[in-house]
Amino acid sequence: MLTDQPLRPARTPNATTAGANHAIVIGAGIGGLASAMRLGAKGWKVTVIDKLDMPGGRGSSISQNGHRFDLGPTIVTVPQVFRELWSACGRDFDADVDLRPMDPFYEIRWPDGSTFTARQSTEAMRAEVARLSPGDLAGYDRFLKDSERRYWFGFEDLGRRSMHRLWDLIKVLPTFGMLRADKSVYAHAAARVKDERLRMALSFHPLFIGGDPFHVTSMYILVSHLEKQFGVHYAMGGVAAIAEAMAKVIEGQGGSLRLKTEVDEIVVEKGVAKGVRLGTGEVMPAALVVSNADAGHTYTRLLRNLPRKRWTDSHVASRRWSMGLFVWYFGTKGTAGRWKDIGHHTILNAPRYQGLCDDIFIKGKLAKDMSLYLHRPSITDPSVAPEGDDTFYALSPVPNLKFDNGVDWDREAEPYRQSVETVLEQYMPGIGETISASLVFTPNQFRDRYLSPFGAAFSIEPRILQSAWFRPHNVSEEAKGLFLCGAGTHPGAGLPGVVASAEVLGKLAPDAPGFTATRSAPDLRLAAE
Questions:
Q1: What angle do helix axes 495-508 and 80-88 make, rounded to 10 degrees?
Q2: Which of 397, 362, 403, 357 minimizes the C-alpha distance to 185?
Q3: Which intervals hold domain Amine oxidase (predicted)?
Q4: Diameter of the chain by CA atoms?
Q5: Are 331 and 64 in contact (CB under 8 A)?
Q6: What does the CA dihedral 322, 39, 163, 178 come to, rounded to 10 degrees?
Q7: Per DSSP, what are the bridge partners of residue 263?
Q8: Angle between helices 495-508 and 30-40 (to 10 degrees)
Q9: Confidence of residue 515 (pLDDT cuts 50, 70, 90)
């Protein structure tokens, strides 16, 4: 199944690193790599440990028959969070990563044949709104203003500082009330526009971070401003190329990556994290430990022998978890230039919107209809496919594995893949005859490959009572010297969110013993190189 996967050379010495300035990061996802970079800039010598054979976590890739499948995130928004991260390490992000702006961002299609093309230009977006529903133009303008206001509060303020103290929450409650954070994303969109297609187009974004648009707080309408202000981008080589560039920065700081290695337990002595125990039994000491593993896995597995005050097994299990994903990665032979109306990003809607979300998030039912996100990176990046061919992935939100009537994916995976192919055939006639590579991920793979509780693709769902202070904190409540980053902690999932979690961690974690931040950015860059 994993043919043509390149073997990686060892990226770390066999000797166990010890010392007062040694830090360990569990998990080489984007949040873990960003945290390692932040710690490296504070003088720590960091070892990043991951069970996969390459950095990136969900942002890694698999190659098959000449096709490179980027497994997870495909859209880069708010690129300044990466530029600021690189700058903190004395480096230039744009010198290391080739980021290309997308225009259009994506196209949304409905079963009745209508479409909505999302672009950065406000006038182009207003023209799309007017084309679909002229009477909703004034409401759309109000929605954009609402979105910008929530962006400055929700992302630039709350999202980039710690929310681990209850007082942090109490201070912002009046603003939450004023901005009607109790309303859902869909309810806010519905209050501004009447056309159901526009309501979907303005409210579906929480699905990209694992949230139900009909229940997630309306703070997340901030994504509309975020896209308008900063655009939507694709990294040449995929997000895996960003992960590789991050790994090189870490190694340039004197850190290392230990891949194909699984952490079995975080070692805690007298309430203080002292290192990790690997699956082999080897103990690696550290003065500071960061977990980029899912927060649920961190507390219920890696700290299973520690009596916990807040994040007990029952408390973790009682959380509402994000949906699962069914992803079909496939390559097609000789199709470059074919299906010209299928661009880099396309969203294919099912006849139902709320009913389908209810099946996924509330009932745990695998519905017969489906909405798909279709990714065609070969339109932009020739390196993902052999010449003349195409590489795709089709993603369908599905229930996670927590429901009592859970889906048996060992039995349902292939029939569901065939259903996905049937839907795609309506938009890309003859696709079934061109398939040259095929790989399927279900919630089972998210559970087993990424150690995600219940196969949830985005950790804990970002509902209002599971956000900010209510999420697992960036500085652990259970053990001193332990920090958390990534999708399951504050501020949440998505590339900007997990990179911001590392920024928050960088503000909370101390400098390495004996480190004085007196070197300038050029000095740091020279040291790294």
A1: 30
A2: 357
A3: 30-502
A4: 68
A5: yes
A6: -80
A7: 278
A8: 30
A9: confident
Q: Which two tokens mark 328?
A: 């079909």
Domains of the chain: 22-100+235-319+460-508 (3.50.50.60), 101-144+181-233+321-450 (3.90.660.50)
- The mean per-residue pLDDT over the stretch 247-252 comes to 98
Look at residues 247, 253, 255, 258 and name the one whose alpha carbon lies nearest to residue 11.
258
- Asked if residue 480 has pLDDT above 60, the reply is yes
Q: Label residue 339 exposed, middle or buried (CB < 10 Å: 0-12, 13-18, 19+).
A: middle
Residue 47: DSSP 8-state: E
CB 273 within 8 A of CB 289: yes
Q: Are 527 and 112 in contact (CB under 8 A)?
A: no
The residue assigned the tokens 């009913």 is 355
Q: Residue 56: name the closest of 82, 32, 20, 84 by CA.
A: 32
Phi, psi dihedrals of residue 225, rounded to the nearest 5°: -70, -40
- CA quadruple 501, 506, 512, 515: dihedral positive or negative? positive
Phi, psi for 181 (deg, rounded to 5) = -65, -15
Judge contact between 102 and 233, C-beta under 8 A: yes
